[in-house]
Amino acid sequence: MSIELISTAFAPNGFIPKRYTCDGENLSPPLIWKNVPPETKSLAIIVDDPDAPGGTFVHWVIFNIPPEVTKFSEGEKGIGTEGINDFRKVGYGGPCPPRGTTHRYFFKIYALDTKLNLDSTATKKDLEKAMQEHILAQGELIGRYSR
Predict the structure, then answer these.
(1) CB–CB of 42/112 below 8 Å?
(2) N or C: which end of the chain has fewer CB within 10 A?
(3) Closest among 146, 69, 144, 76 to 109, alpha carbons compared
(4) pTM
(5) Bridge partners of 4?
(6) For 124, left (φ over 0), alpha (ψ -120 to 50), or beta?
(7) How far apart are CA 56 and CA 26, in angstroms?
(8) Domain count, the chain
(9) Phi-psi group of 3: left, alpha or beta (phi > 0 → left; psi -120 to 50 → alpha; rest → beta)
(10) Average confidence score pLDDT of the chain
(11) What is the rounded (10 degree) CA torsion for 73, 74, 80, 81?
(12) Rounded to whole angstroms, how far apart are CA atoms 141 and 104?
């Protein structure tokens, strides 16, 4: 089963507006998801950039989102648990590619059959390990950004 993940801020494969990046207000963009399996116990979101010069760069790790939540407003806080991104901070860190480049940002959502025993020190690697064998469905939205 596939979860439909969309944003009212940008189209699939479209450009992410500046306000959601390091050049703007660095807010997480609004997200809406549909087709979550009824047996879902929690949701998780990972946002990363596979085009980063040093390898995939993680911009957001958030998990234990209640299954009844179907959207995040712009800059949403307080729903679920945010982990550590590759800026070494808890929470969302917007796109910030090197000047003169365009990068892709993968917004990935996962429906899980459990609530995870992780806290705000969790990284993408920790989250992926904890999610193993618990993923019921997933979805993806790709946005781009240039500097």
Answers:
(1) yes
(2) N
(3) 69
(4) 0.96
(5) 34
(6) alpha
(7) 19
(8) 1
(9) beta
(10) 97
(11) 180
(12) 10
Q: What is the pLDDT of residues 58-78, one digit of tens each?
A: 999 999 999 999 999 999 999
Task: Give residue for tokens 């479209």.
Answer: 14
DSSP state letter for 107: E
Q: pLDDT tens, 18-42?
A: 999 999 999 999 999 999 999 999 9
- Determine the structural domain holding residue 50 and report its residue range: 4-146
Return the closest-CA partner of residue 41 out of 26, 63, 25, 21: 63
CATH code for the domain in which residue 44 is found: 3.90.280.10
**Is pLDDT at 1 greater than 80 in this prediction?**
no
Sheet order of strands, 102-112 included: 81-82, 57-65, 42-49, 102-112, 135-146
Longest pairwise C-alpha distance within the chain: 45
Beta strands in 16-131 (DSSP E): 31-34, 42-49, 57-65, 71-72, 81-82, 102-112
